[in-house]
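User: Can you help me understand a structure? I only have the sequence.
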Amino acid sequence: ALEEPEALRERLSRDPDVAGAAVYVMGTVLAKSGADSTGILLWGIDPSASRGVFELEKAAPQESLDRLQPN
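Assistant: Let's start by predicting it. Here is the structure, written out as tokens:
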């Protein structure tokens, strides 16, 4: 884990050779539906800081993306 991920993101964002940078968290979680369960890899992002880095608009409708709130 990085100690200061936001500082690194800011430094990378100033580099003209870097197209974009975003901070995210990732972890393995258990997803359950009825009697079935499975392990999945879950990513957490700040949607406003991730535009242009992750191709969110290809994965979800814009109205869904507009409702995302960082916290």
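Now, to help you interpret it: DSSP finds four helices and two strands in the chain. The chain has a mean pLDDT of 87. Let me know which part you'd like to focus on.
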